[in-house]
Amino acid sequence: MLRVKAGDVDRMGLLFERYHRRLFGFLYHMLGQAEASEDLVQTVFYRMLKYRHTYTAEGEFRTWMYHLARNVLADHVKKNRHSAHHTDVADWSEKIGGGVRADDILQREQEVATLHRALAHLSDDYREVLVLSRFQELKYEEIARVLNTTEGAVKVRVHRAMNELKTIYLRIEN
Amino acid sequence: MNCEHAKEQLIDYLNHELPAADRSAVAAHLEECTECRQELLALQRVWGMMSAMPVPEPSENVRPAFYAMLASYKEEIQAKPSSWATVWQWLQEVFTPQHALRLAYSLGLVGVGVAVGFWLNKQQLAQTPDNQQLVTLTKQVADMRQVMLLSLIDNPSATERLRAVSYTKELSNANPRVVEALLSTLNHDENVNVRLATLEALSQLAHEPAVRQGLVQSLAHQESPLVQSALADVMVQLQEKRSVKPLRRLLNDPALNEAVRGKIKESIQSLSNGQSVPTTSNKPYDETFHPTPADRNTNTAV
């Protein structure tokens, strides 16, 4: 990224190849909409180019990326306030499958769909820490840097979010 | 370790974020506590599912879209190598045909506004012709009065003729025809009152040489003592020297009223001395006559 900042814009391609899936995953889990998430991936990378001078070597690139992604996400949510987080369950069923028995597929589909709905019911703050820690596999320390908070606070939030998710999940399941 | 503390650690336990010492403490508590074990199982289930949750792949559109964006961005930053170029570009944008057209349109509108303003202003100025019109109208009314005078002055009724003469009062200057008509009336009208009124009207117009001359000549035509007397007064007022001769001729007329004779003598004297005597034109005619020695003297001198 430092080379991108220095003017070697082509290097951005490398970063894109390395990170765009992860970024897409984050946006997808946060939004629940594949198409919109793709558009936002684009927006995040555009902002990386535009605001490359704000990048400092001190922070890790990943942290910076999530920073930008959160801002883009916030803008997007603000713009589409009326359309609430909606889950595209059909998307999920397409991605699952291949060599598994029909019953298993059905059961897993249901479970995943339920979990997804439970995630959707979670507040944005809770969902965010879960997505970052569980799906993006960030350490608490990293999450704390992305959210501009302390590691302890992140830990507490993850803990509460997980309990909340579990409760919602069980309620939907039954 | 109590349950509450243990539950707080469960996530980290699952997440493998706990230091080894804490980890074994939690494990020890789980051995004893069924409730916490169940809690762990539930969490584990959800937790495990989350990791099993497939992360969808972004579609194939993302990559080409990104590279297209990157390429256009590169063009963008190359397109503005210096601030001068930016300024130049901005100027060019301002003066594109479309903008120029808009500018022309705006200027056109302003021009129309100015033109309308001028026109309205002119309209106001054009009201001065109204004043001219008023002058013209006044003149026309005056002319009308003169025509009225001319048409009425031959009226058989003395009252109408008097009215005709009265029209001249508001005339500052009369046309030759009116003067002629008035003089004719003065000389030939049968009614004394009409003649007196005419004389008065003419005296107002005495600044005109034709009127003066007419008045002087009129002396010879007058037979009424009243008119003779009034005429003599007018002559004195006007200091008309030419009237002395006709006045003297009047004195030779044996039929002349004695009172008038005295009056005329006075007038001649006044005119010869070049002094104005107090006007007596409005004094009622006095039939009584008291001849004075001076009068006689004057008479014999003539």
TrEMBL record, chain B:
This is Putative zinc-finger domain-containing protein. Residues 267-302 are annotated as: Disordered. Residues 267-283 have a biased composition (Polar residues). It holds the Pfam family zf-HC2. Residues 3-37 form the Putative zinc-finger domain. SUPFAM superfamilies: ARM repeat (SSF48371). Gene3D superfamilies: Anti-sigma factor, zinc-finger domain, Leucine-rich Repeat Variant. It comes from Hymenobacter cavernae.
